[in-house]
């Protein structure tokens, strides 16, 4: 059949009921017959049914396109006909199955709905004045935790135990969303412990930060923890087992990163699983990534997870997480000690997402094709946001997202519906994501990384970590800098501009060479810049107008448009290929 392309920034994403409980077993990209006729009304009803009942009515938003990030309004040319700045390709690119959102054309053509043409992220256009504080007071502020109190108790969890009326949207006296339970106390393997010393199931991992505004030099430090459901942390008899959990996480890593993952010598007979894929049960030293799976050798997670319902909870599949997977991501201020910049104790945000539904390759392909058809029929229709103030927003791809952000006093509070909606633009369907996520697919290689990549940035910083490579052999970050022509999407990071670019706009070879061996020379700002970023963001906190944007820029005036033109050309002639795609093979090869 012909392939439909999702040509909008983000379309009306839905979940298709047809085939949702039927596992895709062939292991190859499905090639179904003509797609079923799915109307917009049917798509909307299925989407509603997938979300908890209180949030099934679309909320009113001051910014109806709140899911479109401010990066989408970045200027792609300095002047008409001038050099182009293509930061679009980081998110909008040819996808890798089971992501079927083919949005690479967004790099060349702005297929934005008319109601989204106006840039309502006015904090980027007219930011509040930075907060002026003596350096000592500013450092004392960022070093004070708004997550853990002086006795080690979790501030936010205690507040949510008896939520104030302003947080209790349902009025039942209970908080029905996620209650933070991560102690942010990882051990030598990244396993988190509660203030009482118990394992929480969360595990920290180190990853190559996504290119652009997610680098510390552009605003924030950040970390990510992952947690699999309880069955993945127990042996077949139901006993808690860190050993079983390690193996299940290794299996997951192999199928998300699509590489073999090393293991300490492991007895496959005890687990009843052929981890290394050699057809025998012996001693394995790796989890082998085999895709498509061998039809006569079904592969599963181990321990109690092996007995889960595959049609409901999932199985090891390339690019897919099992149902119940959770992620926790904190964004933090930057701390400065001497000449060292590090992640601060104070959180700007705490973001949480949980996979609520297993969708097969076929389900996801049908949903993406239905979305593309709907976008073509109704190019001016915005994405429908389904959310409630307690449980967060549905991505439309099987995940629920929820966040907490600082109030004016610096304490963490639940985000409102519109603030949560800002998360689903990227996590609800772009070509670059892996099962609606970004970080775990970018986890550091366990064969070369400190502690196999299972650690928190507070245990070891970014210094000395080599630059990630594209499939074509080029450094990913240097390639991004070259395409964007600056250190952020808006051409405002003067510090990166001075470090990495020559006056004619080309990259400095010495800087590129240093970057290839150490990503911190690009990603980590100078102490001066770190404090300027802290002051700029603290001004946003005091203003409490996050619906106008939460990104900060320090340096040159940002190159950002106040208005986009529907179907306007970006000036970029050809879409850039994604980093996972290797060079085309010639006949001789």
Q: Report the helical percentage.
A: 10-25%
Task: State the major sheet.
Answer: 9 strands, antiparallel
Query: Hey, roughly how much beta strand do the residues contain?
Result: 5-15%
Arithmetic mean pLDDT: 89
Poorly predicted runs of 5 or more residues: 1-50
Instruction: State the total count of DSSP E strands.
Output: 13
Taken in chain order, the helices and strands follow as HEHHHEEEHEHEHEEHEEEEHHHHHHHE
Shape: globular
Tally of contiguous helical segments: 15
Radius of gyration: 23 Å
Provide the structure class. alpha+beta
Distance between termini? Answer: 29 Å
Explain this structure.
The protein is of the alpha+beta class. It is 21% helix and 13% strand. Strands 2, 3, 4, 7, 8, 9, 10, 11 and 12 form a nine-stranded antiparallel sheet that branches. A two-stranded antiparallel sheet has the order 1-13. The protein has a two-stranded antiparallel sheet with strand order 5-6.
């Amino acid at each position: 059949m012909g392939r439909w392309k999702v040509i909008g920034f983000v379309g009306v994403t839905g979940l298709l009921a047809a085939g949702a409980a039927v596992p895709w077993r062939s292991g190859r990209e499905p090639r179904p017959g003509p797609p079923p006729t799915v109307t917009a009304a049917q798509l909307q009803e299925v989407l509603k049914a997938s979300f908890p009942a209180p949030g099934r009515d679309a909320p009113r938003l001051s910014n109806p396109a709140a899911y479109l990030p401010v990066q989408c309004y970045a200027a792609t040319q300095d002047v008409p006909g001038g050099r182009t700045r293509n930061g679009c390709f980081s998110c909008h690119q040819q996808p890798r199955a089971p992501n079927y959102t083919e949005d690479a054309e967004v790099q060349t053509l702005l297929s934005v709905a008319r109601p989204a043409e106006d840039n309502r992220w006015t904090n980027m256009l007219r930011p509040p004045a930075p907060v002026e504080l003596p350096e000592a007071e500013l450092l004392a502020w960022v070093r004070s935790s708004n997550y853990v109190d002086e006795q080690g108790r979790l501030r936010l969890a205690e507040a949510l135990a008896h939520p104030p009326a302003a947080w209790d949207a349902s009025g039942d006296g209970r908080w029905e969303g996620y209650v933070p339970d991560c102690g942010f106390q990882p051990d030598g393997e990244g396993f988190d412990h509660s203030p009482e010393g118990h394992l929480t199931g969360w595990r920290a991992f180190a990853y190559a930060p996504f290119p652009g505004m997610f680098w510390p030099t552009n605003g924030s430090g950040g970390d990510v923890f992952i947690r699999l459901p309880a069955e993945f942390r127990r042996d077949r008899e139901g006993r808690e087992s860190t050993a079983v959990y390690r193996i299940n996480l290794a299996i997951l890593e192999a199928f998300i990163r699509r590489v073999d993952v090393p293991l300490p010598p492991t007895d496959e007979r005890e687990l009843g699983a052929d981890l290394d894929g050699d057809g025998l049960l012996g001693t394995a030293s790796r989890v082998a990534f085999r895709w498509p799976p061998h039809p006569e050798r079904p592969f599963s997670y181990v321990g109690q997870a092996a007995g889960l319902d595959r049609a409901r909870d999932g199985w090891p599949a390339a690019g897919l997480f099992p149902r119940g997977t959770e992620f926790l991501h904190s964004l933090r201020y930057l701390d400065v000690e001497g000449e060292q910049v590090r992640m601060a104790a104070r959180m700007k945000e705490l973001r949480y997402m949980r996979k609520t539904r297993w969708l097969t390759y076929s389900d996801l392909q049908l949903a993406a094709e239905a979305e593309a058809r709907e976008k073509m029929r109704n190019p001016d229709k915005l994405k429908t946001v389904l959310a409630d103030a307690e449980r967060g927003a549905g991505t439309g791809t099987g995940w629920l997202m929820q966040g907490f952000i600082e109030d004016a006093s610096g304490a963490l509070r639940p985000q409102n519906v519109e603030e949560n909606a800002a998360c689903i633009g990227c996590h609800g369907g772009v070509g670059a994501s892996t099962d609606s996520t970004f970080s775990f697919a970018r986890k550091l290689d366990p064969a070369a990384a400190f502690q196999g990549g299972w650690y928190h940035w507070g245990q070891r910083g970014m210094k000395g970590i080599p630059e990630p490579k594209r499939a074509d052999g080029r450094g990913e970050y240097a390639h991004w800098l070259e395409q964007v022509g600056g250190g952020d999407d808006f051409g405002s990071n003067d510090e990166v501009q001075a470090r990495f670019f020559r006056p004619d706009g080309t990259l400095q070879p010495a800087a590129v060479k240093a970057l290839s061996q150490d990503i911190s020379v690009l990603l980590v700002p100078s102490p001066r810049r770190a404090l300027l970023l802290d002051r700029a963001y603290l001004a946003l906190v005091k203003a409490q107008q996050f619906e106008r944007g939460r990104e900060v820029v320090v340096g040159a005036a940002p190159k950002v448009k106040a208005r986009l033109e529907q179907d306007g050309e970006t000036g970029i002639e050809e879409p850039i290929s994604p980093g996972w795609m290797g060079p085309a093979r010639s006949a001789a090869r």
